[in-house]
Specification:
Elements: H1 4-14, H2 16-28, H3 33-45, E1 48-52, H4 59-68, E2 74-78, H5 85-89, E3 90-95, E4 100-105, E5 112-116, H6 123-135, E6 137-140, E7 143-146, E8 152-157, H7 170-173, E9 176-181, H8 187-197, H9 211-223, H10 228-242, E10 256-258, H11 262-278, H12 286-297, E11 302-303, H13 305-309, H14 314-324
Parallel strand pairs: 1-8, 1-9, 2-5, 5-8
Antiparallel strand pairs: 3-4, 6-7, 10-11
Helix pairs in contact: 1-9, 2-4, 3-11, 9-11, 10-11, 11-12, 12-14
Length: about 325
Protein backbone atom coordinates (compact mmCIF):
# COMPACT_ATOMS: atom_id res chain seq x y z
CA UNK A 1 0.00 0.00 0.00
CA UNK A 2 1.35 3.42 -0.93
CA UNK A 3 2.42 5.93 1.70
CA UNK A 4 -0.38 8.51 1.92
CA UNK A 5 1.87 11.08 3.62
CA UNK A 6 4.41 10.79 0.84
CA UNK A 7 1.63 11.16 -1.76
CA UNK A 8 0.22 14.22 0.06
CA UNK A 9 3.66 15.83 -0.02
CA UNK A 10 4.04 15.05 -3.74
CA UNK A 11 0.65 16.62 -4.44
CA UNK A 12 1.54 19.74 -2.43
CA UNK A 13 4.59 20.14 -4.67
CA UNK A 14 2.53 19.70 -7.85
CA UNK A 15 -0.47 21.93 -7.03
CA UNK A 16 0.96 25.51 -6.92
CA UNK A 17 0.08 26.02 -10.59
CA UNK A 18 -3.61 25.43 -9.70
CA UNK A 19 -3.54 28.57 -7.54
CA UNK A 20 -1.88 30.47 -10.41
CA UNK A 21 -4.64 29.37 -12.82
CA UNK A 22 -7.43 30.27 -10.39
CA UNK A 23 -5.87 33.67 -9.59
CA UNK A 24 -5.62 34.52 -13.29
CA UNK A 25 -9.19 33.41 -14.01
CA UNK A 26 -10.55 35.39 -11.04
CA UNK A 27 -9.26 38.55 -12.74
CA UNK A 28 -11.93 38.02 -15.39
CA UNK A 29 -14.55 35.64 -13.94
CA UNK A 30 -16.44 36.95 -10.91
CA UNK A 31 -18.17 34.29 -8.81
CA UNK A 32 -18.96 31.01 -10.63
CA UNK A 33 -16.44 29.17 -8.41
CA UNK A 34 -18.09 25.82 -9.12
CA UNK A 35 -17.73 26.35 -12.87
CA UNK A 36 -14.01 27.19 -12.50
CA UNK A 37 -13.52 24.08 -10.30
CA UNK A 38 -15.23 21.89 -12.92
CA UNK A 39 -13.07 23.31 -15.71
CA UNK A 40 -9.98 22.44 -13.66
CA UNK A 41 -11.31 18.92 -13.01
CA UNK A 42 -11.76 18.37 -16.76
CA UNK A 43 -8.26 19.72 -17.38
CA UNK A 44 -6.64 17.48 -14.73
CA UNK A 45 -8.69 14.34 -15.43
CA UNK A 46 -8.36 14.65 -19.23
CA UNK A 47 -12.12 14.83 -19.75
CA UNK A 48 -14.26 16.99 -22.03
CA UNK A 49 -16.84 19.36 -20.52
CA UNK A 50 -20.31 20.50 -21.61
CA UNK A 51 -21.47 23.80 -20.10
CA UNK A 52 -25.19 24.58 -20.17
CA UNK A 53 -26.75 27.89 -19.18
CA UNK A 54 -28.70 30.85 -20.50
CA UNK A 55 -26.78 33.42 -22.60
CA UNK A 56 -24.58 35.96 -20.82
CA UNK A 57 -23.34 33.80 -17.91
CA UNK A 58 -19.65 33.94 -18.99
CA UNK A 59 -19.49 30.36 -20.33
CA UNK A 60 -17.48 31.34 -23.40
CA UNK A 61 -15.43 33.90 -21.45
CA UNK A 62 -14.49 31.29 -18.81
CA UNK A 63 -13.29 28.81 -21.43
CA UNK A 64 -11.30 31.45 -23.32
CA UNK A 65 -9.79 32.70 -20.06
CA UNK A 66 -8.72 29.17 -19.06
CA UNK A 67 -7.10 28.60 -22.46
CA UNK A 68 -5.30 31.96 -22.23
CA UNK A 69 -3.73 31.05 -18.88
CA UNK A 70 -1.98 28.05 -20.48
CA UNK A 71 0.73 28.44 -23.11
CA UNK A 72 -1.15 26.31 -25.62
CA UNK A 73 -3.09 26.67 -28.88
CA UNK A 74 -6.79 27.57 -28.78
CA UNK A 75 -9.58 27.38 -31.38
CA UNK A 76 -13.08 28.77 -31.11
CA UNK A 77 -15.64 27.13 -33.40
CA UNK A 78 -19.07 28.74 -33.68
CA UNK A 79 -21.45 25.89 -34.50
CA UNK A 80 -24.16 26.79 -37.02
CA UNK A 81 -26.72 24.73 -39.01
CA UNK A 82 -24.72 25.15 -42.26
CA UNK A 83 -21.40 23.96 -40.76
CA UNK A 84 -19.73 21.06 -42.61
CA UNK A 85 -17.38 18.38 -41.18
CA UNK A 86 -14.57 19.81 -43.36
CA UNK A 87 -15.00 23.20 -41.62
CA UNK A 88 -14.14 21.41 -38.38
CA UNK A 89 -11.46 18.81 -39.15
CA UNK A 90 -10.05 20.11 -42.46
CA UNK A 91 -10.02 18.75 -45.98
CA UNK A 92 -7.86 17.71 -48.96
CA UNK A 93 -6.98 20.57 -51.32
CA UNK A 94 -5.49 20.12 -54.80
CA UNK A 95 -2.27 22.06 -55.35
CA UNK A 96 -1.65 22.98 -58.98
CA UNK A 97 1.97 23.79 -58.13
CA UNK A 98 2.84 20.32 -56.82
CA UNK A 99 0.06 18.55 -58.77
CA UNK A 100 -1.08 16.61 -55.73
CA UNK A 101 -3.67 16.76 -52.97
CA UNK A 102 -2.48 18.38 -49.75
CA UNK A 103 -4.08 18.21 -46.31
CA UNK A 104 -5.46 21.50 -44.99
CA UNK A 105 -5.99 21.02 -41.24
CA UNK A 106 -9.07 22.50 -39.58
CA UNK A 107 -9.53 24.33 -36.27
CA UNK A 108 -9.88 21.05 -34.33
CA UNK A 109 -6.07 20.81 -34.42
CA UNK A 110 -5.50 22.77 -31.22
CA UNK A 111 -5.00 22.00 -27.53
CA UNK A 112 -8.24 23.69 -26.44
CA UNK A 113 -11.40 23.63 -28.55
CA UNK A 114 -14.31 25.88 -27.67
CA UNK A 115 -17.35 24.37 -29.40
CA UNK A 116 -19.77 27.27 -29.00
CA UNK A 117 -23.49 26.32 -29.10
CA UNK A 118 -22.60 22.75 -30.07
CA UNK A 119 -26.26 21.76 -30.51
CA UNK A 120 -26.68 24.12 -33.50
CA UNK A 121 -24.71 21.88 -35.90
CA UNK A 122 -26.19 18.84 -37.72
CA UNK A 123 -25.38 15.23 -36.81
CA UNK A 124 -22.61 14.72 -39.40
CA UNK A 125 -20.61 17.62 -37.90
CA UNK A 126 -21.16 16.33 -34.38
CA UNK A 127 -19.99 12.85 -35.45
CA UNK A 128 -16.81 14.38 -36.95
CA UNK A 129 -16.07 15.87 -33.53
CA UNK A 130 -16.81 12.50 -31.90
CA UNK A 131 -13.67 10.81 -33.30
CA UNK A 132 -11.51 13.68 -32.09
CA UNK A 133 -13.05 13.55 -28.61
CA UNK A 134 -12.85 9.78 -28.12
CA UNK A 135 -9.87 8.62 -30.15
CA UNK A 136 -7.82 11.85 -29.90
CA UNK A 137 -7.23 11.59 -33.64
CA UNK A 138 -8.67 12.98 -36.88
CA UNK A 139 -9.01 11.24 -40.25
CA UNK A 140 -8.82 13.36 -43.42
CA UNK A 141 -8.96 11.34 -46.63
CA UNK A 142 -6.49 8.44 -46.23
CA UNK A 143 -4.50 10.21 -43.53
CA UNK A 144 -4.98 9.87 -39.77
CA UNK A 145 -3.45 12.50 -37.50
CA UNK A 146 -2.98 12.19 -33.75
CA UNK A 147 -4.01 15.29 -31.82
CA UNK A 148 -1.48 17.04 -29.61
CA UNK A 149 -1.82 16.69 -25.83
CA UNK A 150 -3.33 18.23 -23.82
CA UNK A 151 -6.49 18.09 -25.95
CA UNK A 152 -9.73 19.29 -24.40
CA UNK A 153 -13.14 20.01 -25.92
CA UNK A 154 -15.16 22.56 -23.94
CA UNK A 155 -18.63 22.91 -25.40
CA UNK A 156 -21.46 25.30 -24.57
CA UNK A 157 -25.19 24.74 -24.98
CA UNK A 158 -28.12 27.14 -24.71
CA UNK A 159 -31.09 25.43 -22.97
CA UNK A 160 -33.80 27.99 -23.75
CA UNK A 161 -33.70 28.68 -27.48
CA UNK A 162 -34.34 25.35 -29.19
CA UNK A 163 -35.37 26.60 -32.65
CA UNK A 164 -32.88 25.43 -35.27
CA UNK A 165 -31.00 23.13 -32.88
CA UNK A 166 -30.06 19.46 -33.13
CA UNK A 167 -30.17 17.52 -29.85
CA UNK A 168 -26.84 15.84 -29.12
CA UNK A 169 -27.03 12.05 -29.56
CA UNK A 170 -26.55 10.00 -26.38
CA UNK A 171 -23.30 8.54 -27.78
CA UNK A 172 -21.78 12.01 -28.00
CA UNK A 173 -23.17 13.33 -24.72
CA UNK A 174 -21.63 10.30 -23.00
CA UNK A 175 -18.18 11.38 -24.26
CA UNK A 176 -18.34 14.47 -22.04
CA UNK A 177 -16.92 13.74 -18.61
CA UNK A 178 -18.97 16.51 -16.99
CA UNK A 179 -22.13 18.40 -17.83
CA UNK A 180 -22.06 21.61 -15.79
CA UNK A 181 -25.17 23.73 -15.25
CA UNK A 182 -24.40 27.44 -14.92
CA UNK A 183 -26.73 29.58 -12.82
CA UNK A 184 -27.16 33.35 -12.39
CA UNK A 185 -24.62 35.19 -10.22
CA UNK A 186 -25.50 36.53 -6.77
CA UNK A 187 -26.56 40.18 -6.44
CA UNK A 188 -23.20 41.36 -5.01
CA UNK A 189 -21.32 39.44 -7.72
CA UNK A 190 -23.46 41.05 -10.42
CA UNK A 191 -22.60 44.52 -9.11
CA UNK A 192 -18.89 43.65 -9.40
CA UNK A 193 -19.47 42.30 -12.93
CA UNK A 194 -21.24 45.54 -13.85
CA UNK A 195 -18.38 47.71 -12.51
CA UNK A 196 -15.73 45.61 -14.26
CA UNK A 197 -17.47 45.75 -17.64
CA UNK A 198 -18.06 49.51 -17.75
CA UNK A 199 -14.41 50.36 -17.06
CA UNK A 200 -12.01 51.37 -19.83
CA UNK A 201 -9.49 48.63 -19.08
CA UNK A 202 -11.17 45.22 -18.99
CA UNK A 203 -8.74 42.75 -17.34
CA UNK A 204 -7.21 39.93 -19.39
CA UNK A 205 -5.56 36.69 -18.35
CA UNK A 206 -1.91 35.97 -19.10
CA UNK A 207 -0.25 32.58 -19.75
CA UNK A 208 1.18 31.25 -16.47
CA UNK A 209 1.30 27.47 -17.02
CA UNK A 210 3.10 25.25 -19.54
CA UNK A 211 1.26 22.31 -21.19
CA UNK A 212 3.94 20.01 -19.72
CA UNK A 213 2.79 21.02 -16.21
CA UNK A 214 -0.75 19.86 -17.05
CA UNK A 215 0.44 16.50 -18.45
CA UNK A 216 2.65 15.94 -15.38
CA UNK A 217 -0.21 16.81 -13.00
CA UNK A 218 -2.51 14.36 -14.81
CA UNK A 219 -0.11 11.53 -13.94
CA UNK A 220 -0.19 12.56 -10.26
CA UNK A 221 -4.02 12.71 -10.32
CA UNK A 222 -4.07 9.06 -11.48
CA UNK A 223 -1.93 8.18 -8.42
CA UNK A 224 -4.41 9.69 -5.92
CA UNK A 225 -5.44 6.83 -3.63
CA UNK A 226 -8.91 5.38 -4.15
CA UNK A 227 -9.84 2.95 -1.38
CA UNK A 228 -11.89 -0.15 -2.18
CA UNK A 229 -14.72 1.18 0.00
CA UNK A 230 -14.87 4.31 -2.20
CA UNK A 231 -14.80 2.11 -5.32
CA UNK A 232 -17.80 0.19 -3.92
CA UNK A 233 -19.56 3.49 -3.17
CA UNK A 234 -19.04 4.69 -6.76
CA UNK A 235 -20.29 1.43 -8.30
CA UNK A 236 -23.28 1.38 -5.93
CA UNK A 237 -24.27 4.90 -7.07
CA UNK A 238 -24.00 3.96 -10.76
CA UNK A 239 -25.77 0.62 -10.30
CA UNK A 240 -28.59 2.40 -8.48
CA UNK A 241 -29.26 4.32 -11.73
CA UNK A 242 -29.65 0.98 -13.55
CA UNK A 243 -31.31 -1.25 -10.94
CA UNK A 244 -33.13 1.03 -8.45
CA UNK A 245 -34.99 -1.99 -6.95
CA UNK A 246 -31.76 -3.39 -5.51
CA UNK A 247 -31.27 -0.19 -3.48
CA UNK A 248 -34.83 0.21 -2.10
CA UNK A 249 -35.53 2.85 -4.76
CA UNK A 250 -38.36 1.09 -6.58
CA UNK A 251 -40.18 4.44 -6.95
CA UNK A 252 -37.50 5.40 -9.53
CA UNK A 253 -38.19 2.39 -11.78
CA UNK A 254 -40.92 4.05 -13.88
CA UNK A 255 -38.87 7.28 -14.11
CA UNK A 256 -35.56 5.96 -15.51
CA UNK A 257 -35.37 4.65 -19.08
CA UNK A 258 -31.63 3.89 -18.89
CA UNK A 259 -28.87 4.37 -16.32
CA UNK A 260 -25.20 5.29 -16.38
CA UNK A 261 -22.77 3.24 -18.49
CA UNK A 262 -19.39 1.93 -17.20
CA UNK A 263 -17.99 5.23 -18.46
CA UNK A 264 -20.00 6.88 -15.64
CA UNK A 265 -18.10 4.82 -13.03
CA UNK A 266 -14.74 5.58 -14.65
CA UNK A 267 -15.41 9.32 -14.90
CA UNK A 268 -16.86 9.47 -11.37
CA UNK A 269 -13.63 7.94 -10.03
CA UNK A 270 -11.36 10.19 -12.13
CA UNK A 271 -13.32 13.36 -11.33
CA UNK A 272 -13.22 12.49 -7.62
CA UNK A 273 -9.44 12.03 -7.82
CA UNK A 274 -9.05 15.39 -9.59
CA UNK A 275 -11.29 17.07 -6.99
CA UNK A 276 -9.13 15.61 -4.17
CA UNK A 277 -5.99 16.80 -6.01
CA UNK A 278 -7.35 20.37 -6.22
CA UNK A 279 -8.00 20.16 -2.46
CA UNK A 280 -4.33 19.07 -2.04
CA UNK A 281 -5.28 15.64 -0.74
CA UNK A 282 -3.69 12.35 -1.78
CA UNK A 283 -6.80 10.23 -1.19
CA UNK A 284 -10.49 10.34 -2.14
CA UNK A 285 -13.20 10.70 0.51
CA UNK A 286 -16.99 10.19 0.03
CA UNK A 287 -17.52 14.00 -0.01
CA UNK A 288 -15.35 14.21 -3.16
CA UNK A 289 -17.59 11.67 -4.91
CA UNK A 290 -20.77 13.50 -3.83
CA UNK A 291 -19.31 16.87 -4.94
CA UNK A 292 -18.84 15.76 -8.57
CA UNK A 293 -21.67 13.20 -8.79
CA UNK A 294 -24.33 15.49 -10.29
CA UNK A 295 -21.96 16.79 -13.00
CA UNK A 296 -20.89 13.27 -14.00
CA UNK A 297 -24.36 11.64 -13.96
CA UNK A 298 -26.89 14.31 -14.99
CA UNK A 299 -26.42 13.64 -18.72
CA UNK A 300 -26.11 9.86 -18.36
CA UNK A 301 -29.57 9.08 -16.96
CA UNK A 302 -32.44 8.77 -19.42
CA UNK A 303 -35.85 9.98 -18.27
CA UNK A 304 -39.13 8.31 -19.23
CA UNK A 305 -42.17 10.23 -20.49
CA UNK A 306 -43.70 9.68 -17.06
CA UNK A 307 -40.80 11.51 -15.36
CA UNK A 308 -41.06 14.40 -17.82
CA UNK A 309 -44.84 14.58 -17.31
CA UNK A 310 -44.29 14.86 -13.55
CA UNK A 311 -41.50 17.47 -14.01
CA UNK A 312 -38.96 15.16 -12.37
CA UNK A 313 -35.38 15.92 -13.41
CA UNK A 314 -32.17 13.89 -13.34
CA UNK A 315 -31.10 16.16 -10.44
CA UNK A 316 -34.04 14.82 -8.36
CA UNK A 317 -33.13 11.23 -9.21
CA UNK A 318 -29.44 11.71 -8.32
CA UNK A 319 -30.44 13.34 -5.01
CA UNK A 320 -32.66 10.35 -4.17
CA UNK A 321 -29.82 7.94 -4.98
CA UNK A 322 -27.24 9.87 -2.92
CA UNK A 323 -29.67 9.99 0.02
CA UNK A 324 -30.29 6.24 -0.14
CA UNK A 325 -26.93 4.63 -1.06
CA UNK A 326 -24.91 3.91 2.07
CA UNK A 327 -21.91 6.20 2.57
CA UNK A 328 -18.72 4.33 3.60
Amino acid sequence: MMDIRELNERIRQETPFINLLVTEMEKVIIGQKDMVDRLLIGLLANGHILLEGVPGLAKTLAIKSLANTIKASFSRIQFTPDLLPADLVGTMIYSQKSEEFLVRKGPVFANFILADEINRAPAKVQSALLEAMQERQVTIGDHTFLLEEPFLVLATENPIEQEGTYPLPEAQVDRFMLKVMIDYPKKEEEKLILRQNVRHDFPVTTPVVEPADIIKARQVVRDVYLDEKIENYITDIVFATRYPDQYQLSQLNPLISYGGSPRASIYLALASKAYAFIRQRGYVIPEDVRAVCHDVLRHRIGLTYEAEAENITTEDIINDILNKVEVP
